[in-house]
Amino acid sequence: MKLNENIKIIGSNVILVPYEEKHVEKYHKWMKNPELQELTASEPLTIEEEYQMQATWRNDDDKLTFLVVSRQIFSDTQDEIESLVGDTNLFLRIDEDEENNKEIRVAEAEIMIAETAFRGQRLGWEAMLLLLKYVQKHLPIDKFEVKIGFDNVKSINMFGKMKFVESYRTDVFKEVTMERPVTKDWISWLDKQVQLTVEQYKNHL
Ligand SMILES: CC(C)(COP(=O)(O)OP(=O)(O)OC[C@H]1O[C@@H](n2cnc3c(N)ncnc32)[C@H](O)[C@@H]1OP(=O)(O)O)[C@@H](O)C(=O)NCCC(=O)NCCS
Fold this sequence. Notes:
Number of strands: 9
Bound molecules: coenzyme A
Number of helices: 8
Mean pLDDT: 96
Radius of gyration: 17 Å
Structural class: alpha+beta
Oligomer: single chain
Strand order of the largest sheet: 7-8-6-5-4-3-2-1-9
Strand content: 25-35%
Shape: globular
CATH superfamily: Gcn5-related N-acetyltransferase (GNAT)
């Protein structure tokens, strides 16, 4: 979606930037890695398909994506592409709550720290919470949701600590769904976890 096309979200150790054409080559390189394909349940794409995907992420109203920049690398190199370590995104949908006869606005979240040397440094934690906090303020979301492979214990633990709870399990896809309703309590918990500044982003950091 266009919501974030001209902004960056600045946290303590990461900056979230909109996914642009100039980032596609590096993103494509990450997604050639079979381990990342499995952990993120992604199909390998050609570079042309990846460019189309980037345009889709930018233009479709139900999708929001950011790339994750390491502030440490950027301060060392001043090179935005070099500083990219992963991505985080949301897919929006509307579910029917038939019992209460109302619609529930759901945002399915994903996070990936693709650069393995930068895992375990709290970047994934911070990037995900920055996105959730930003979105919670700017879009009318009732519930966040994540789908995670059974074996991805690290990710399951991380979302557990973010107060997501398991709601569904499918043996066919070997996947667990965890969800987090957007409640007052959770918003005040979220507010305490991360501080963010939103600034203009025009073509580069
Ligand atoms: C899962 C993934 C995003 C985690 O990101 P990361 O930067 O490596 O991990 P982090 O260091 O931010 O945080 C993970 C751990 O620190 C904890 N943590 C980090 N900061 C914290 C904080 N401020 N307070 C409390 N806990 C914190 C997390 O809960 C988790 O703990 P655990 O693994 O000991 O249970 C990353 O490993 C990854 O990209 N994996 C491959 C792709 C993937 O699996 N994506 C998820 C599919 S939805």
